[in-house]
Structures are given as C-alpha cells and as structure tokens.
Amino acid sequence: MDIFIIGDVHGCFFTFLKLLENWDPKREKLIQVGDLVDRGNFSPKTIRLAYEIQIAFGKQSIFLRGNHEQMMVDYLLGKDLINNWKFNGGAETLIQFEEEGINPYSYLSWIKNLPLFWENKKVFISHAGISEHAADPFDPNDNVGVLWNRKHLKNIGKLQVIGHTPRIDGLPEFIKNANCWNIDTGAYRGICLTGIKLKNDGSYLESISIPTDPRDID
C-alpha cells in the first residue's frame, strides 16, 4: 500500500480539506506529521476533522504528535508553568475553542496519545526528524529530539520524512546526505500545504501542494 504524507497544517482547515481530496484510502495510508494546531484560524475544526478521520478509517490514517500538540498537552495538564503554548499560538487557539463552543479537554486524551513517529522497513516519519545530536530522540523535551529538532538530520538507513521547519519557497525539499524529505511548506504563512506520495519502500511518486486558502489565515 502506498503512503500519503501531509505536512504541518497549523489550523488551516480549508486548505487541509482541499488536500485531502487527493487521498485514496483504498490504496494509500494517510500520515500527517503533526502540528495540526495553532497559527491558522481553525485549530478546533482541524483537530475535530483529524479525530473523525481516524475514527472512520482506523489504521489507514495516522496522525503524529508535533511540538505544538506537545505544548498544548503540557498547558492543559498544568505543566506549562511559563505559558509557553500561549506565546506560540495557544492563546488564539483557546479563543477559537471558546468561539466554536468546543471544550479543548474533550480532545486531550486523543492528542496526548498521538505517536511520535511511524515507520516501516524503509521509511521513518516524525515531526522534526532524528538528528545526529540527540541523546534520546524520543524524549519530548529534548530540543534536538523528534518534536523540536532543527539541526542536521542523521542518515538512519531509511528515508526520513519530516515537517517542522517551514520551506519559505513553498517547495518540499529532498536532503540527499540525510536521505530525508522536508514537506512543511508554510501553510500558515500563506504559502501552501504539501502532501507527498511514496511507495511502501520509500520510492517517490509525486508531491501535491495546495495554496493556502485565504479563509485560513485572514
């Protein structure tokens, strides 16, 4: 079965919906790299859509945890003592939840249990990737771990696919020495949201980029 991997959505609900039109659940596994929330105008709608997709399609759809989901979970659990999430888009997201009449705690259990990565024998997908510097890449508090890393990626013998660091030219980037695709193309910056299609063995099929719908950021 092929793999359809979607980059950072950041509350860009209508753009996300448009990109999902290119997903064929009968022959593709859907994997989203995290950062569903914050920055854009529709974080609650985006979370609800992702949750409903996973309920409907089960193991055919996988949503990974990004650093913004981690910040949200830490805040809702009372672990964010310096309001880090609020200063990184969370304040606006909380207002959106209130305006939608949705209690953010109703999704807390689902969000905090989102996996940090997905892999098979040839492909490894995470939010920010495995770097050469992480002592424990799966420590959610490690600033060079798979939630936060912005340093050079390690060639792990598999194709890595990540988001997290926006590509300001709006083009997904293949980093040859790290054997990695970065598919965050700055949806919340008004550029585009990108999905990449791979064969199960990591062979590239195509990338699809949807320009950010103005409703998502205006």
TrEMBL record:
Domain Calcineurin-like phosphoesterase: start-end pairs: 1-168
Entry keyword set: Hydrolase
Transmembrane intervals: none
UniProt GO MF annotations: hydrolase activity
Gene3D superfamilies: 3.60.21.10
Entry EC no(s): 3.1.-.-
Enzyme class: hydrolase
Domain of life: Bacteria
Protein's UniProt name: Metallophosphoesterase family protein
Species the sequence originates in: Shivajiella indica
